[in-house]
Every structure is written in structure tokens, then in C-alpha cells.
Amino acid sequence: MPPYIPGQLQSLPVLLAPQDAMLITVFCGLGAHIIFKIWEPMQFRLVSVLLIISPLLLSTLLIPHYGVVSSILHTFSIYLTTLATSIIVYRLSPWHPLAKYPGPILAKITKLHHALIVHTGKQHLHIKSLHEQYGDVVRIGPNEVSIRDVSCIQPLMGAQGLPKGPGWNARGLLRPIPTLVGIRDPAEHARRRRPWNRAFNTNGIKEFMPAVQSRVHQLVERLGEREGQSIDLAEWFSFFTYDFMGDMIFGGWTEMMRDGGDVKGLWHCVRDGLRAGSIPEHVPWIAYYAKKVSSVVRKALELSYMGDSRAQQRYQQGSTSKDLFYYLSNEDGSEKVSPSPAVVTSDGVLALVAGSDTTSSVLSNLFYCLLRNPVSYKRLQEEVDKFYPPGENSLDPRHINDMPFLEAVINEAMRLYPVIPSGSQRSPEKGKGGKAVGQYYIPEGSQARIHFWSVFRDPRNFSHPDTFWPDRWLIIEGLQESPEKITHNANAFIPFSFGPANCVGKNIALQEMRVAVTHLMQKLTVRFADDFNLDEWDSQIEDQTVMQLGKLKVVVERRD
């Protein structure tokens, strides 16, 4: 039976034999791969031309032979198969810039599989298992490697290191203004960071301490009111950090501890945003198309809308104290040109996200570890009682720098459970070629990251790496004898990241945690609730850029 050809197409001349038409289609498919190598599929018109219009036009070469429907099916099949095969062969070939680095075959072909793992929240465990299988450098995507080698931290993340990678662009596609943490240009990042540096210098931290003390006092009082009840301590630490960060940034925002919950929906909005942004970091073109879906954009921008509202209120109220907004909006007059309200709001929201879930995660993991290790709990309790006996104001931080075991416990919690488990993506600047990172070479167009979870739990860096052992920090400082020779690589411990883009709020976060732990332990006794399953804690941890935790069910009792 001859192929069906519509009347208007019957007059098409037979210019090529079927084999020649198919060969042209193959060459065009190869050409599409070359174009996609130069330009990522983040331009709708380009993608439409290459994936739809081109094969449609090519199908006209076969219509005189096979008819319309069959020609279209044949052409699309040949074209797309050629394109996919070319991509796969190239990415697996010895000519690929990252060919010498080992990794799973699927990871070399596509990062979609990795994105699915990210969606499950188990990226930190997956990458660690890859390092254990393949070594210190493992290819986790067609153009990205994860590094476990401590010697690479300085050259990758230091002052002369690499700027942030394209994954940060993808996160920014769903935001009108990039936040400080998402700025890839080092010079622009340094400029935008100046007001942050002023806010978090020694004098700035002193300005924030009354808010720390007030919110810590409120936390302990609210917990004490629930004496004898089973409560989720991780949730209450989140309420505390959000309330404090609202005070520190805008002079006040949420009252989660007062309300006993997230009445405004801010906390859940932040967590939804972190989850939504974790996948585009690895597959940037997803964000480009997702932003064209109104429901996705509305969800992604919900936090920005809430931030805009609070920022407008803060602008109208003016300064009542030197909060972070005071510095970000240039109320101190240190910058020649004041930033736009949109930039101020963007960075204010960033501060909330960066300072809330991170600090609450450390506090939650810290108390989980203490409660699982009664000897350490008792030892810290004794240190607290020594410096802050009954009647002593434990909100006053004058003794906390003299409490070595408190510092050791905080460090050990951050080592065992880094709040940014999979680190930060870095990439050579476009047009400047690749860069040597230690003994490895990162080609232009490729990305690399230091995987904190793997580095912090590497036995070459820390003895008993998977064990909560605060003593290691005292031994290395010469404050305690060790019955065994221990391994302790201080260069491997970077809980607040490293280099010019490290956590600018490190010092206030540490003070916040020290005061919170000290005051809570002076006033309350904490134990696991009967309905808490100790063995489920680690399995409920999710790596959604920032660590997300399950419930920490405890019972508290007043000590006084």
C-alpha cells in the first residue's frame, strides 16, 4: 500500500534518496550537540529550533518516500537518537575534559539521576559512598566533580580560588534580585559583603547580644512551661533561631516561641524554598523552565513577598537599634551609594535563611549527641555549674570563653553533622581557562565542590570519625591527655565554609549557641522522651542544601 501524501505535498520533488536524507538528519543531530555544548538549553527559542523545528523541516526530505506521519516519526527518531547518542558517547569518551576522573557511568552521562537523589535528601550519603568507592575525586555529573582531599580546600575556596559555580545562577533564576551568597563575581561579592562585615565586627556583635539574651531567656522559659511533657526540641530550637534572626535583621519579625508555632508560615516557606532550590543547583535548565510556570514562581517568591512586606515596615519605622537592616540599607552612611530596597530585602531574607536553620540544626544535633552520651552530658553539666552556679546569671557571656568542654561539644556537633553537608559548587571563570586545584585540574566549563560530610568523617582527618567524641578537641589543645595517638587535621574542619565567601555571621552564631546551651543546661534537665526512637535520628536527616532534621522528642524538668 503506497504511503499517504496530502495533495499539497504530492508535488514535492524527490531531491534525495532516503539514505541521503537520513544521513543529513544524522549530521544535523550531531550539529545540535555541538550547539548545545556551547549554549546550555536555557533559551526556549533555541531549544524549540533544535529539538522541534529542525527535525520537522528535515522530515520534508522523506515525505516523498514515506508520507507525512511516517516521515516525521522517522526523522524525529533518527535526529533525537543521534543527538542523545552523540552526547552519551562524548561524555563517556577519553576526550571529555573530566574523563580521567572516576565515577558511576550514569553520573558521567547525566545529572538527572543525581537530582533525583537530591530530591530524596540523601545526597550527603550518596556522595560519601561514591568517595569510598572511587577515591578523593569522583565525577558526580557530566561536568562536575566532588573532592574529599583536604589539600584542595585552599586552592579551590581560598582568596585565589574559584568563584561560585553556575548552580548558583539556577537558584537565582527564581528570585528577582540575587542574594549575597548567590553572587558569582568575586569583586561584586566583596562589595556587597562590606555592610555585613561592619554589622558582624566586634562592636556589632555587642549590639546584637541583648537580643540573643532576651530570646534565649524566652526559649528556656517556654520550655520550662512544658515541664514533664514530650516536646520536639528541634522544633523549639527553630522557633528560637527564627525569632532571634527576625530581631537581629529587622528589629523584630516573628514570635514563634510566644505563639508556640509558625503562625505566619515563614519557617515552612523557607524550608519549601530550600527544597525547591536544591534540584536546579544540579540541573540549572530546570529552573529556567520552572519559572515559566506561575504556580512554581508564586511558591518560590512567597518568601520574597514576606520579606518585602517586613522590609517596608522597617523602612517606615526607621532605626530603633543597630540591627542588620541598619547596615544593609546604609543607614550608617558608610557607602557612597545606598543599595536599592530590593537588594536590602534580598539580603535580609538571606540572613534569615542562613542564620536560622543552620544554628537550630547545630543545637539540635548537639543535644541529640549529648543525650546519647550521658558521660559527655554530665561533664558539660558540671562545667556549666562550675562557671554558672545557681543564682549566677547564665545569660551573661563573660565566662563562656573559659569553658573548653562547651567549645569542644559545639565543635564536635558541627564536625559530625555539618549544616551544609555537600559544600558549595565552584567553577573557573568563563573565558579564563581552567585552574589547578592541588594535584587536580578543573577545566573551564566544569564545576567542583569540597564535600564537607566526607571530609569531616574521613579517618585520615579525624580518629573515630563517626563517633561523637568531644575530647578530641581538648586533646589537640593540650588540655587533656590521650591514651592513644589520635589523628586531628585542623585544616579539615571548616564548618563555616572557607575563604572570602565564608559565613560572615560565624561569630554571632557561635555566641548565640554558647549562651543558649549554657542557659538551658543551667535551668533545665533534658532527657529523651519515651516515644523517641534514637536510631531514627540519622536516617531522618536530609541534605536540602542546608541540613533538615526530624523530630527530637525530649522531656525537660526544671533544676531550680
TrEMBL record:
Binding annotation for heme: 503
Keyword hit for ATP-binding: no
One Pfam family cited in the UniProt record for this chain: p450
Pathway: Secondary metabolite biosynthesis
Keywords of this entry: Heme, Iron, Membrane, Metal-binding, Monooxygenase, Oxidoreductase, Transmembrane, Transmembrane helix
Cofactor(s) essential for the protein: heme
Alphabetical list of InterPro entries matching this protein: Cyt_P450, Cyt_P450_E_grp-I, Cyt_P450_sf, Cytochrome_P450_monoxygenase
Transmembrane portions of the chain: 21-39, 46-66
Top-level taxon of origin: Eukaryota
GO MF entry, a single one: oxidoreductase activity, acting on paired donors, with incorporation or reduction of molecular oxygen
Family designation: Belongs to the cytochrome P450 family.
Descriptive protein name: Cytochrome P450
Protein source organism: Phanerochaete carnosa (strain HHB-10118-sp)
Lineage summary: Eukaryota, Fungi, Dikarya, Basidiomycota, Agaricomycotina
